[in-house]
Amino acid sequence: MERTQEHGPAGNADGTTTRSGPSGAALELLVHGVGGTTPEVMLDDPRTVRITGDDIAAVFRRADDADAEQRPADRRDGPVPEAYVWCNLTSGNGTRALWLLLLPFMVVNLAHWMRPTARGRTRVVRLYGLLVRLAGLSLTVLLVAAACEVALDLAAWQCAGTRTCAERHSWLGFLSPEVSDGGWWSLPGRRLALAALVPTALTGLLWYLSLRTWNAYESQQPMTRDPESEEAGDRTALGRPGFWYGRRLVARLRAAHTAAGLLTVAAAVGSAAARHDREPGGPAVLAVLGVLLETVLAVGACAVVWVVCRRGRTERRLDDELDARLVRRLPLAALVLLALAFLYAGWERDGWESAGRLPGDPTFGALALVQGLLVIVLAGVAHALYRADPDRRAAMRGLAGPAVAMLACALGGVMSGGVSQRMSDWLDGTGTSIPGPPVLLTWQASVIPPLLVLLLVLCGWLARRAWRLARAEHAAVEHEYPGETADPGRTRRIATARAMAALTDRAPRIVAATSAATLLLGAGALVGATITDRTPGAATQDSYAVVHGAAETAQALGSWLIGLGFVLLVACGRRAYKDASTRRTIGILWDVGTFWPRAAHPFAPPCYAERAVPDLTWRIATWTQATGGRLVISGHSQGSVLAAAAAWQLPPSTRRRVALLTYGSPLERLYGRWFPAHFGPAALGSLHQEVDCWRNLYRLTDPIGGPVRLPGDRDPEVDRAPLKDPLAYGRTGAHPLPAPILGHSDYQADPAFAEERRRLLARLRPEVPAPRHTADPDGGGPAGPPVPSA
Fold first, then answer.
1. In angstroms, rounded to a whole number, what is the distance separating the alpha carbons of residues 359 and 758?
2. What is the pLDDT of residues 600-619, one digit of tens each?
3. Cα torsion 613, 616, 618, 620: sign
4. In a 3-state reduction of DSSP, which class is residue 486?
5. What span is annotated as the signal peptide, if there is one (predicted)?
6. How far apart are the C-alpha atoms of 326 and 330, rounded to whole Å?
7. Strand ranges (E), 483-629
């Protein structure tokens, strides 16, 4: 980049923009996709300047085009290209890979947005969102409970309370009554209070990360606009003023989830002491205090659930209000209760010794049962919504949301069980000195091997399907390149690329099978743990040798696979943020997950679109009103989704002045099927009617992008016929070297791209009258960018 100083249209001292007349200039606003790129590559020029923005997201131009508005005659041959670079919103240093450890939170947040289309079913839609928010709350409690299990139960209660285990781990010696010779910290309650600092710090870290990203993302206000009749109606919520501004809800959820985590730690510390005090002969005063503490904790839990249930998203208006008292007082009250629990548990008691496990085993069983019931009820609600307005293109007949919510709960359970089992194996080298984690967690970790076997079977089915598709594509490839000398190897590679790309459409079946198997295996683990109260290996000890051997193998492999999975997850995440090719491989799933606002879980990774969509909306509206020229939003891959979201946010009068050019776009293939309520056929059809024109390019070898497939007769059509890939079968004069199979990349190299862009610009009106500028009614200057008249 040549320099980073900002350029823009000339302005007056009061901030309003003036011009002598409409320039009629044409602008192409390029929006890149997954993996990101540099402005130099996007603009095909090593000399670029930043027009507006910052180091996180900005708009760039070629240095020669910095003042193109003042020289419209010099650009008669084509549009002025601008590049919106937003890759820093989703990438950064290696520490960002730690977000992958909170994957269950992101997945359950996705389930919120996967509901089927609903017309006039407001109460059912609210119930759907409520159930997903409760599932998200259960995941927070599960995460903190798993941290309590590791720190309080396994380390402080079991290992520190057992002489052989404490001697093996010298760092626990000061907590052991035998090793420390009855030291001050060796009392069971004090050990628990000290170990509780670990899950408390984890909760505080989650609160801090959510607060920091909340200030950076949710605080970006969308563009204000004059009230106009919305032609889209209720076709999609993405056009509502408050859709990309969820500041109030995220703040409420952050307070509730933080309080839930702190109350979980307080319950883990206080319940052990309260159970001891209720035993015959215990101190009456402490017994009463224990009952009072548990009662207050139950009241606090009810308050948290009430806050989560009380309010959902406010999208029809820009909600600037914050529930300041609730946001401050709820976590503070939970912190006070936690301090009281520490004080109560740390009180000296005669004859209290740590033996067995902490009295928290039923907690994990209750969480698993609640999560299963929530998913089942959610499936019923989603089915009712789907039957009211069926959409045959919707993934899994409207059950994608419940299926994904089930996978989120399964991820949380498996990660909790695996980490607890691995920690137990590390602390208890002999396997006989401590009881280990709750039986249910061991059962949950043991379901991983059979689930992997199922995934291998599904992968085998996909491979067979790809092989059959590749064979079917051979004839099609030869038909598309007539007159070429047959090359079996070349034909096979092209057909295989098409077959592999087509496997994306089989994803709903994979998710459905995995989710159903997870539900059944989870139910089996819960039943097995409840009935036997023993680990899988111990429960099958008297059974057939093959059954016992399989149970022992699954139990041993489960914990090791979890540990290996954590290492691979972090390593893959770090590599994805440093290596562009790896990021493109997994980036589409991550960018889909972080595209949506945090509506169900405040500790999920932040939504980059709450910054990117307002950026694009402001840029389009201000440039259009300042110049009166033509504008084409050119979006590739995920950039096409951002472009569509920005177009929906524009006022209708401005929306009619822009054209869309999308390529490699997942708008229908991914978003339309998995998120039908927001990108369904009605929503995409309304977008086609409201923008001036829209063309979509795709290839059969592209595993991500695809056609839009608008229902009914649309004029002009959105989808162009599939582009040839490769551009040439063999060596030609234009391609003397073998042309590569491009797949999802380099759409601009195809001559069809320039042709479609030229046609879009020709359809747009060459000049638009200059708009009148309106001042703020309070006299404080302009209220946002003036909206051009039609």
1. 71
2. 999 998 899 999 999 999 99
3. negative
4. coil
5. none
6. 6
7. none
